[in-house]
Amino acid sequence: MTAIIKTPEEIEKMRVAGKLAAEVLTMIGPYVKKGVTTDELNTICHDYIVNEQKAVPAPLNYGHPPFPKSICTSVNHCICHGIPSDKKLKDGDIINIDVTVIKDGYHGDTSKMFVVGKPSILAERLIRVTQECLYKAIEQVKPGMRLGDIGHICQTHAEAHNYSIVREYCGHGIGASFHEEPQIVHYGKPGTGDVLEPGMCFTIEPMVNAGKRYSKVLPDQWTVVTKDRSLSAQWEHTLLVTETGVEVLTLREEEALERVISHN
């Protein structure tokens, strides 16, 4: 296991970063409505992170080529890494907003699905099932669990609803680096893969398609879309493995999930 086990001091910093990331998603909610551009949402989030939180938006200039914006906005059939643009949101659109902040050198990473106006029944169901995949996996996280168990929980729940799991993109360890070991895939066999240990921090972020699982990357080298143009949804939390279970570092107040889940 090459995962970096966090010290108590590092865990405190991860809690702070996680709380800030959650607050960005809570803050941006009222702005997600018909007629707004994803670039306007990006500007609002950027200014809030930099000016209010005195933190750094991790996506900005990250990677090769450098990601040009401060958040990811993935609309409808975009799976992940959507680049904010001057395209206006319209009634019925679904959008994933993915936020990662750096505070005191540590990262908090989380994403949420938003709906513009009234969603289709298909979209509403896809969003709900994807969030259930995340929650069901989180609720089982504890020392001794294996990474394959996480993937298996997400995959079986999505496929039970005739949806598919994207396989090319995954969750990841997180801390002083945006992406650390291990990789957390959202499909797999129970009882396989690395064993979870207390002090590990990582994200679970299932990407679920209404159609087939296949994806393609657009020429901007970032935006990932479904090959069959079917809708896609994603939810993400940053987690800490505790001695007895899990702590959800990016939990928002509106969520019906315990922040600390103990299996003692």
UniProtKB/TrEMBL annotation:
It is an enzyme of class 3 (hydrolase). GO terms for molecular function: aminopeptidase activity. Its cofactor is Co(2+); Zn(2+); Mn(2+); Fe(2+). A divalent metal cation 2 binds at D109, H172, E205, E236. Substrate binds at H81, H179. Binds 2 divalent metal cations per subunit. Has a high-affinity and a low affinity metal-binding site. The true nature of the physiological cofactor is under debate. The enzyme is active with cobalt, zinc, manganese or divalent iron ions. Most likely, methionine aminopeptidases function as mononuclear Fe(2+)-metalloproteases under physiological conditions, and the catalytically relevant metal-binding site has been assigned to the histidine-containing high-affinity site. A divalent metal cation 1 binds at D98, D109, E236. Residues 12-243 form the Peptidase M24 domain. Its EC number is 3.4.11.18. InterPro entries: Creatinase/aminopeptidase-like, Pept_M24, Pept_M24_MAP, Pept_M24A_MAP1. Keywords: Aminopeptidase, Hydrolase, Metal-binding, Protease. It catalyses: Release of N-terminal amino acids, preferentially methionine, from peptides and arylamides. It holds the Pfam family Peptidase_M24. The keyword Hydrolase applies. Monomer. NCBIfam families: met_pdase_I (TIGR00500), PRK12318.1 (NF008970). Belongs to the peptidase M24A family. Methionine aminopeptidase type 1 subfamily. Removes the N-terminal methionine from nascent proteins. The N-terminal methionine is often cleaved when the second residue in the primary sequence is small and uncharged (Met-Ala-, Cys, Gly, Pro, Ser, Thr, or Val). Requires deformylation of the N(alpha)-formylated initiator methionine before it can be hydrolyzed. This is Methionine aminopeptidase. The lineage of its organism: Bacteria, Pseudomonadati, Pseudomonadota, Gammaproteobacteria, Alteromonadales.
